[in-house]
Predict the 3D structure of the following.
Amino acid sequence: MGGGKKPDIKLISDDGLRHDGRRLDEIRPVRMRVGVLNNADGSALVEFGRTRVIAAVYGPKEPVQKFALLPDKATLRVRYHMAPFSTEERKSPAPSRREIELTKVIREALEPVILVEEYPRTVIDVFIEVLQADGGTRTAGVTAASLALADAGIPMKGLVGGVAIGKVEGHLVVDVDELEDMYGEADMPVAAAPDLGLVTLLQLNGVLSREEFSKALDLALTAIRTIVDLERKALKESYVSSE
Ligand code: ADP
């Protein structure tokens, strides 16, 4: 989000802890639950601290309107939406420019891992609904969508996970929350499929030096490996918590 006057608190304490007590490289407590909706083919609920996102998947299916179908692969359709009650000030339910942009980057973060060639002339629909927003909703959305796709039995080359790295008071931090996003110097959301060695989403708001950028990417990929391990566990056990 960026901007605004910084509140009169230190976001990193003298002993190197963050405002919520986390170490610089620590992700928030993560919870994942698979198969949370009866009426979708696949679904997942993912929490990173207070950020809570649900994803529902339908398909592959033949849509009612067939004109937009691709002859050689499935069409992946994604909708990222923030519920009106997900933010402190009630958000308009109409799709904002930000939601339209996030829908596009999340679609592009998922498509490379889905075996879309196996289902020509069909659609796969992914609905991502942010229930509670406290930073990192696009990366939590990618993580939830990856789980929901796997839960729907859609063949994938690998799982995708996401996390945002921030620069706060001169320090690189892993898994930024809204306060750190708002008052930090930089914010870099990343999604990746570690088993395939693919980075599928990378954005940077703010300024990092080349060295910081390279370190931030390493921190992101290490955290994403942990997140994808949790996804794998959640798919086996239907529920995991990192606590
Ligand atoms: P991300 O959620 O991927 O970090 P942003 O960097 O755009 O995306 O947003 C950071 C955080 O700011 C969000 O997670 C949310 O907590 C808050 N936020 C974003 N959009 C809105 C909005 N329209 N109203 C209130 N808060 C918002």
The chain has a mean pLDDT of 95. The chain is about 25% helix and 30% strand. Residues 30-242 form a domain with the Ribosomal Protein S5; domain 2 fold (CATH 3.30.230.70). The pocket of adenosine-5'-diphosphate is lined by residues 1, 87, 89, 91, 98, 133-138, 164, 178, 181, 187, 189 (CB under 6 Å).
